[in-house]
Structure formats: C-alpha cells, structure tokens
Write a structure and sequence with these properties.
The structure is a single chain. By secondary structure, the chain is α+β, with helices and mostly antiparallel strands. It has a single domain, classed as Alpha-Beta Plaits, CATH 3.30.70.920. It has three helices and four strands; from the N terminus they run E-H-E-E-H-E-H. The protein has a four-stranded antiparallel beta sheet, with no helix packed on it. Strand 2 and strand 3 form a beta hairpin. It is globular. The mean pLDDT is 93.
Length: 95
C-alpha cells in the first residue's frame, strides 16, 4: 500500500535536512521511501513524501525518529486509475 506523508516542519527545513544528512532516512525494514516534493515557497515549510509498506505500524517506528522536528499526517493513497476503477469509469489517465 502507498501512503502520502504530509510533513510540516516545526522550525523550518534546516534541522530536518541536517539530521537526514547525518543519519539517513532512518526507515525501518519494510517501509520504503519512493519520492518527495517540497512546497516551493519562502519557508520551504512542507514536504509531501510518497512511501510504501505492507505494515502501516512501521510509520510509528519511523516517526519516532522525526517527531521532534515536525508534525506528520500519514494518508493511504491510490493512483487515479485505481480510483476510476472503483467508481466503474474507464479512464486511461489522459485528457
């Protein structure tokens, strides 16, 4: 299952990036980072991370390493093709 993690930096991005540079992502085995995007604004204060796992309890382990530097919302997500299939609409993703 894929999850979108919305991360709000408590004191800006520098402390998050510094820890990541020193210790890596600190992901427990079974939790996989896929990609991420940061809001393009003056504070660079929010990050959206796409992650994957079969065990959502692993987020608790991972977030324990980061919760002092930000707040996190973990949301299960599906792609647009799966959403269209669930509402019985044939859609190839194009316009």
């Amino acid at each position: 299952m894929r999850y979108m993690v919305i991360e709000h930096y408590t004191n800006g991005p520098e402390s998050i990036y510094r820890r990541a540079a020193e210790r890596g992502r600190m992901l427990p085995e079974g939790l996989h980072y896929l990609d991420s995007w940061v809001v393009d604004g003056p504070g660079l204060d929010r990050c959206f991370q796409l992650m994957e796992t079969d065990d959502p309890a692993l987020f608790g382990v991972w977030l324990a390493n980061w919760s002092d530097l930000g707040t996190f919302e973990v949301i299960p997500v599906i792609d647009s093709a799966e959403a269209a299939a669930r509402v019985a609409v044939r859609w190839d993703g194009g316009l």
